[in-house]
Amino acid sequence: MNIGYYNLTTTTKHGGVESFVWEVARRMADAGHRVTIYGGRGDVLRDYPQLQIRQYRFIAREVWGRSRILRRSLNLLKLLERLSMAATALPDLRRAGHDLIQISKPYDLPVVAAARYRGPRLVYNSQGTDFFSGDRFFRRTIDAAFACSRYNAAMVEARYRIPLDVSYNGFDEQRFHPQPADAGLRARLAPDGAPLILYVGRLVTFKGLDYLLDAIGILRDRHTTPMPRLLLAGNGPHHAQLVARTQRLGIGAFVTFLGPQPNHELPHYHAVSDMLVLPSTDHETFGIAACEAMGCGRPVVAAHTGGLPEVVRHGETGLLAAPADATALADAIGTLLGDAALRERMGTAAAEWVRAMFTWDRVVGRVLHSYETALATGAGRE
To answer: Angle at the Cα of 218 (from 206 to 256), degrees rounded to 5?
Structure first.
């Protein structure tokens, strides 16, 4: 097949959607398909020479947001950002002769609809709920759709009234696997030998990091011994507010902002950490970060929201806590901190679970089923 993966942020940001595009595209190319990634002008690239990469100028949402009227709607800003890339990408998309074009956001539905006069089938891989006014108009252009979790599929089915398969996201089991801890790194991060709690992801409000900081404050007030250190790996617009909250709570000695970490460095941080915490309050449709931590043999404390309960098995591979509840989060963290045998048992089970369910090879098998559906659906329309 000749496949196009069209998603602006693939080459501009780190995240679950972006990892999905890169890894599925890579394996499709390895299987002999002709693969092109279409993304925005950026420096987030992976050394996959078998892929053809096309990058285009775009007007970032922050620029559109300088207008007080436009910035009232984040979804509108994202739509305008995507459409600005389409101005130069659309001619290439039309000429490419793709059999299939896969998108990950509804914002790109109008773009691919405009490119379909030459016949490519449209596959929509839902990775969230970025709906916008008028998006339903384009739902009939979708030949097949799949979502990254049953939770996400239910929301899309309710909006577009189309059936969705579920193809969970994946992780790189060759990179994220149990390995010895780097004693030097652990000593640098916790010179007093304190436990290490890791968070990996964007620093944005819906990730629930305010509640995680509050939970660290609660653990301190409970005189938890030894007091853990929290490592925050990532960046985002909520960074300054989180720093200020850390200072206001008086927990600066227990929190380290690591900044964004390249994918190949993350296994080292998992190896020295005792657990991963994902305190999201909303919109968490899957959780690749959880898979990566569990692949490294680490238990996960996650909020019981979105698709996270489909990834983290409560009481087996980690613990689930009520979202937006700092006390519940502190209780779950405290339970794992106080029982090394439980952490070991859950970590072992976690590594087995993710290798059985969430490797990229398993993901690709499920994706191919959706591609076959798209081709059959399109043929039926001709």
So the answer is: 65
